[in-house]
Amino acid sequence: MMKIAAAVSAFALTITPAFSQVTEEQLANDAASTGDVLTNGMGRDQQRYSPLDMVTKENVKNLVPAWAYSVGGEKQRGFETQPLVYDGIMYITASYSRMYAIDVRTGEEIWQYDARLPEGILPCCDVVNRGAAIYGDKVYFGTLDARIVALNAKTGDVVWRKRIEDYKAGYSYTAAPLIVDGLIITGNSGGEFGIVGAVQARDAETGDLVWERPVIEGHMGMLNGEESTMTGSLNASWPGDMWKTGGGATWLGGSYDADTDTLVFGTGNPAPWNSWLRDAGDKDDGSGDNLYAASRLGLDPKTGEIKWHFQSTPREGWDYDGVNEVIPYEDADGNKRYATADRNGYFYVLNREDGAFVNGWPFVKDISWASGLDENGRPIWVEENRPGNPVDATDGKKGEVVFSSPSFLGGKNWMPMAYSQNTGYFYVPSNEWGMDIWNEPITYKKGAAYLGSGFTIKPNYEDHIGSLKAVDPATGEWVWEVKNESPLWGGVMTTAGGLVFTGTPEGFIVAYDDATGEELWKFQTGSGVVGQPITWDMDGEQYIAVASGWGGAVPLWGGEVAKKVSYLNQGGTMWVFKLSSQVASR
Ligand code: CA
Ligand code: CA
User: Fold this and answer.
1) Average pLDDT across the chain, whole number
2) Is 3 exposed, middle or buried (0-12, 13-18, 19+ CB in 10 A)?
3) How much is the pLDDT for 2?
4) How many whole angstroms from 426 Cα to the centroid of ligand 1?
5) 76 pLDDT band (50/70/90 cuts)?
6) Burial level of 585, CB count in 10 A (0-12/13-18/19+)?
7) Which ligand is nearest to the CA of 29?
């Protein structure tokens, strides 16, 4: 009898309960619901702030590993993912377009999916993936061959798989998708190949395209299977046919401002990098701005129409992609604002109603390409620091070399900052570096690099490149700064416990005091941390997770900096921490 009872109970345990479908309401409430992490950014506004306060400034020193999980194999490349946690399962994406479901209590694998990429994919900046999306009974992620895949969240079986664009033309996909009102919204990657940036919205259930909005002027949008409207006005800010291969990759995905019902997407560099080939006219009258590259766009989520734009770098010529995350917040006076920290070194505050410039300041030390911002947020260029036109060179092949700061990898790159509702500060993972850059002739060829530039990145300081800064968005003041020897490349998270979490390429996940920047705890994960920390609570305890696995653009593109950090080891481990149970109550 006892044997039968044991068998029955073991059988009962193996029956999986029906998957509890994720609703739009749950996605909208993600920032406040501490028991799960359903969206990129821990809320569609991407503040990366958790109201959890079980882990405090006092007890954070007692964090210990709960489990670790290796994505292993020979595919140990940049591990930039942000995990999702729902219904007892953690969903993570990994290099080479892989996805895993893991039992969040034990670290045991439930399923894994490998996208089996074709030969000839053209990822520019490592074979990374930055995370998944979840809605209904499905999880979604983008792949390096520019597809979006919907998987059954419980089994990992493919439900649908759609092509975003042609990978042979240089398109790829690495960002976490965004889901709003049943639409799954994606951007694209490939700005170094002369692709055309676009935002697409699909029915999350079927994968059918609902609308598409190219972000370069002259291209036509699409809505419900028909042409909708032209983006901008043809040739208003682009010469000749250059807009046809004009770049503007929307490669970091977007955020969603529920208050104004606006999708906010950033756009990458105009193509090619050599700005003289796109120079239509006078620098001051807007005719050479190359809209809407290197910009932030507010889009109507139902139609994909552009509601507003803010261009951070008109006539861009340093690869200052304008893709970095735009975070809605309320300032101390109750004004609805956006904040964004651009590759070009400036931190911007914008009006949430219309994207209009409110204020802006440098968040890195040695900006050389501009001397400041005017009252509209337009850069005041330092013309002699624009890389020269090869046409003016004696051989017509290599324009004048200039030193530019920040480097093309940016005062800040993709790695997301966080906003603390506790302090009202933004915590910005920045880098202090510059580059020698010059221009060369180039013509477009499908699937080939389309830069027309050469470059070498250099550190600006001997003792550090990385610089985590607490930025007061009311004044632009740096409240505190923590320097790091190698460039920072991981995301930041803040908590109501008064903590700021981030990782370093040297392998540490670190917790800082949000008011002072004092280091309160760190743990060596075994490889560089370029992932995005999250936190949630489960069974009465607060958990913290981060991916460890060095990689990304720095080792591939970093010039002298890449040599300096070549000692860093690769990896591929998801780490989960909680307070040691003996001390959790102290
Ligand atoms: Ca949540
Ligand atoms: Ca770029």
Assistant:
1) 95
2) exposed
3) 45
4) 20
5) confident
6) exposed
7) 1
Structure token pair of residue 387: 């890389």
Torsion angle (degrees, nearest 10) of CA 218, 219, 220, 224:
-150
Contact partners, residue 129, CB within 8 Å, separation at least 6 = 80, 81, 93, 94, 95, 97, 98, 141, 142, 143, 144, 174
**SS3 for 561?**
helix
Distance 134 CA to ligand 1 centre (A): 12
Rounded Cα distance, 182 and 133, in Å:
12
Which tens digit of pLDDT belongs to each residue from 348-406? 999 999 999 999 999 999 999 999 999 999 999 999 999 999 999 998 899 999 999 99
Q: How far is the CA of 382 from the centre of ligand 2 (A)?
A: 21
Contact (Cβ atoms closer than 8 angstroms) between residue 61 and residue 470:
no
Counting ligands in written order, the one closest to the CA of 35 is 1
Return the closest-CA partner of residue 452 out of 572, 277, 302: 277
- Looking at the CA of 268, name the nearest ligand: 2
Q: Sheet containing 466-471: which strands, arranged edge to edge?
A: 418-419, 426-431, 466-471, 478-484
Q: Is the peptide bond before 406 cis (omega within 30 degrees of 0)?
A: yes
- Peptide bond preceding 429 in cis form (omega within 30 of 0): no
Structure tokens, 42: 């821990």
Cα(155)–Cα(143) distance, integer angstroms = 19
> How far is residue 421's CA from residue 53's CA, in Å, rounded to a whole number?
13
pLDDT digits (tens, 9 = 90+) for 249-262: 999 999 999 999 99
Of 1-10, 372-381, 554-563, the range with the highest mean pLDDT is 372-381
**How close are the terminal C-alpha atoms of the chain, in Å?**
46
79: CA distance to ligand 2 center in Å?
20
Distance from residue 368's CA to the centre of ligand 2 (Å):
19
Parallel/antiparallel/unpaired status of strands 508-513 and 519-524: antiparallel
Q: Among 459, 461, 442, which Cα is nearest to 451's?
A: 442
Residues annotated catalytic, as ranges = 319
CA of residue 560 to ligand 2 center, whole Å: 19
- Looking at residue 165, its amino acid is E
Distance CA 116, CA 97 (A): 8
The closest ligand to the CA of 44 turns out to be 1
pLDDT at 280: 76
Please state the length of the chain: 586
In the sheet where 327-330 sits, what is the strand order? 327-330, 336-341, 346-351, 357-362
Say if residue 332 is exposed, middle or buried (CB neighbours under 10 Å; 0-12, 13-18, 19+).
Answer: exposed
Tokens found for residue 543: 């958990």
Is residue 156 within 8 A of residue 112, CB to CB? The reply is yes
Could you identify the residue written with the tokens 């004048």?
400
Q: Indicate yes or no: pTM above 0.70.
A: yes
The phi and psi torsions of 83 (rounded to 5 degrees) equal -70, 155
Q: Where are the domains of the chain?
A: 20-584
Nearest alpha carbon to residue 283 among 371, 359, 386: 386
Closest by CA to 37, choosing from 45, 26, 23, is 26
For domain 20-584, is the CATH number 2.140.10.10?
yes
Provide the token pair at 312.
Answer: 């951070």
